[in-house]
Amino acid sequence: MNRKELDPDSSASAAFGECLRRLRDERGWTQDDLAERTGYSGTHISAVETDRKPPTLRFANRVDKALGTGEKFERMCRSARNTALLEGFPEYVGHEGRAAEIRLFEVGIIPGLLQTPDYASELARSAVKRGAITAEQARERVALVARRQAALMRSAPPLVFVVLDESCICRPIGEPDVMDAQLARLVEFADLPNTVLQIAPYDMGARRTFDLPLYILTLPDRSLMSYAESAQRGYLERESTFVLPILTAYHQLQAEARPQASSVTMIEQLRKGTP
């Protein structure tokens, strides 16, 4: 019988499903066996194990009792429910930390890899105030920014290519000193030997090839991976036939965007309040 391969690093709910299947298998139970002990159907057990249905606290409590695992699955369920990260993003971050090359495009906000702690905290606080995330989720987001940036400070750092829509640098986040420090961070980033920073100005119009944030990774074995986000979820793509056209569109974007020297001048003029 074919069984769906599970990647516990892709999301908290996937980790829940993988752990549930593993412990059930260790006991020699079928899905129907566990279903009988928890009061759920075998179809429901299958859906949770394959990450097609998110676990509930009620389900987690019954699984803990059936498997004799204390509060293990309850804690995992709370983690799955509390995460502030879009589906696919935790897995992407794992690959990002070992990539040989990183290409990214962002609209509206400075991407996490380039954010200052104050800028990241301001975004998180605003999301909490709107009721979009909890205070715990805000801390998770800010901590993840720091971990991602630390992962780039390795002995053989990756090449990082960044194209920012002009809105990223023009949209004020926090007090003026927060934004000024963030813009200064961009200038410092552009000066690194392994980075390229470009601004895609508003007047590019329809020549801008992307409308949503996009990340493209070249892994150490030269394989490609892309990650894109909508408002509700993230999409991780490993199939080269799909990623190669995205990479081509990214190169077209770089060709149309301002060169790095011109982009840095644009940022410096914005800091000084001059057009």
List the uncertain runs: none
Q: What is the CATH class name of the largest domain?
A: Alpha Beta
Helix content: 40-55%
Order of helices and strands: HHHHHHEHHEHHEEEEHH
* Major sheet size, sense and barrel closure: 6 strands, mixed
Q: And the CATH topology of the largest domain?
A: Endonuclease, Chain A
Name the CATH superfamily assignment of the largest domain.
Endonuclease Chain A
On the 0 to 100 scale, the average pLDDT is 89
Number of helices: 12
Strand arrangement in the largest pleated sheet: 3-2-1-4-5-6
CATH architecture of the largest domain: 2-Layer Sandwich
Distance between the termini: 65 Å
Which structural class matches the secondary elements?
alpha/beta
Radius of gyration: 22 Å
Number of domains: 2
Total number of strands:
6
What fraction of residues sit in β-strands? 5-15%
Description:
The chain has 275 residues and is of the alpha/beta class. The protein has helices spanning 12-26, 31-38, 42-49, 57-67, 72-82, 89-96, 117-130, 135-151, 166-170, 176-190, 240-256, 260-272; strands at 101-106, 159-165, 195-200, 214-218, 224-229, 234-237. The protein has two domains: 12-82, Orthogonal Bundle (434 Repressor (Amino-terminal Domain)), CATH 1.10.260; 89-272, Endonuclease Chain A (Endonuclease, Chain A, 2-Layer Sandwich), CATH 3.30.870.10. It has a six-stranded mixed beta sheet, sandwiched between helices. Helix 10 (176-190) packs antiparallel against helix 12 (260-272). The radius of gyration is 22 Å and the shape is elongated. The model has no long low-confidence stretch (mean pLDDT 89).
